[in-house]
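Researcher: We're teaching a course module on how sequence relates to structure. For the next exercise, students receive a sequence and then see the predicted structure as C-alpha cells, so they can try to spot secondary structure elements on their own. Here is the exercise chain.
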Amino acid sequence: MLKKIYTFTPEIRILIAMKKTIFLLACMISNVITASNLTSTNLQTYAQSAKSVALEKNNLLSALPTVVVNMNTTYNNLPLPSFSTAVSAQGYTYPGTTNIKYRFAITNITTNTSVPDFIQTSRFVNIPTAIQSYNCQYTIKASAVIDDVVYAYAGNTITVLSPTIPLITLSPVTCETTLANLTSTLVANPGFTNATSYTFRIKLTSDTSGTYGYSTSSSRFVGANTFVGFPLLYGTRYNVAVQYTFPDPLTGLPVDSGYGGECMIETPKFPLISLASPLCGSKVDNLTAPIVAEPGPYATMYQFRIKKTDTGDGSAPIYYYSPVLNTRFTTLAIFAAPLAYDSSYSISVRYCISSNIRGTWSGFGHDCIILTPTALTPKMAEIAFKAVAYPNPFANNFKIDVKTSGDSQINLKVYDMMGRLIEQNTYNVSDMETTTIGDTYNSGLYNIIVSQGDSTETLRVIKR
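Model: And here is the predicted structure for the students to work with:
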C-alpha cells in the first residue's frame, strides 16, 4: 500500500513545527506540575522550557518569507478631510491562498498614544476613535496576514495629520452690509454640526490696538447690541470675527476653532426725530402749551430748542434751549424765551442714547413750525337785559328805557286787560330813548312784553 505524500508550503511547515513545539512545552509543564509541588528546581526547569520555546518560535518566524505591504501615500504628510476619511494599504496576493488579511499599527505621535495592532479583512482603515484628536500627527503602517499567519512589518510608514478645524466668518447675509438698526441680528456661517456655542468678536475698523468686545451664543445668531461693554455707535464701521466651540472627540473637552477672517459691518446713520405734538404748522392754544417729541430709539434724554421763524431779513437766528430732560414731554414754558402772541416759531429736538450727559447725541431734527395764539383783548362787561316803562302811570304816553349790551332789535308787544294784542313793533336799540308809546290808548291797564333775542321783560302800565 502506497502512502499519500502531502506537499506543504514553507509557511504551513513552520506552523506545524510551532504547534509541535508548543505541544512539547505543554507536556513538559504538565510533567513539572504533576511530578511534585512547585519547587525552585521545577520552576527553573519550567523557565528553561519556556525560553526554549520562545527561541524556537523566533527561529521559525525568521524563516518566513518577507511579504511587503505598503500604505498608499495619498494623505502622507497631509491633513485628513475628516476623521471619517479612510486611508488605505496597497492590496496584495499570495500564491496558493485567498485567506488574506491586513494588520495595522497606528500611533498618535503627538500625544504618544496608540491602540493595539489589529487585523481586518479590509485594506481601508480609519484613525481609531480612542486616539482621535485635533492638531495631531499619526503614523500608520501595515503588514500581511496570510492563512492567519502574521507577517512582520516590511512596508513603508506614512504620517497623516488630523483634520484641519474649518474656520468660519459672518454669513454673506451680514458681512459687508449696513445694519438696519443697532439691534440687527448678526449671522455666522455654520461650524461643525456638534458645535456647542459661537463667540463673536468685534472691534472698530479704525482701531489698531485690538480693543475687542465679545458676545457668545448657543446658536450662530447674535444681536448686534449684545457685545458686553462695547455698545455700538451710529454711523460707524466695525470688524467682526467668529469662532465656534465643539467637544474634542477623544476627551470630550471643549475645543475652540479659532477665529476666522474679519468681516466689516456698518451701523446706520443716527436717526433724527421731530415733534410729535403739536402738529407742525398748527396753532397752539396758549404760550404754555404742551409739546411732545417723537420717541428716539434707545433714547435716555431729550433736549428741545426754539427760535423765531426766519423773517427773511438775513439776521442770524437766536436759539433758546431747554434743559436736558429725561422725558420727551414738556411745555413751551420750558424755554427762557420771550414768546410773543400771534407769532411763528421753529422747534427742533435731539436725543441721547447714553446714560450720561456726555453720551452720544443725535443731531437736531428738522424744524417744526408752530403758531402762537392771537393776544386776548379785554371784553366789555356784559349788561343784563332790563326794560323799565316811565312815567307809570301815564296821562298821554310813556317811554321804555332799555339797558342792554346787545345791538339786535327790540321787539315790543302790548296787550289790554282782555288779552288782546293792540300793538306790535320792532325798534332799534338806539331809537328806544325817543320812542313814545300809548297816545291812542284808552284809560286802563296794559301788559307790555319787551324782548331782545333770548332776553324778555314783562311790564304793566296804567293810563289815567
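Model: If you want an answer key for the exercise: The first helix runs from residue 10 to 35. Residues 89 and 123 are 5 Å apart (CA to CA).
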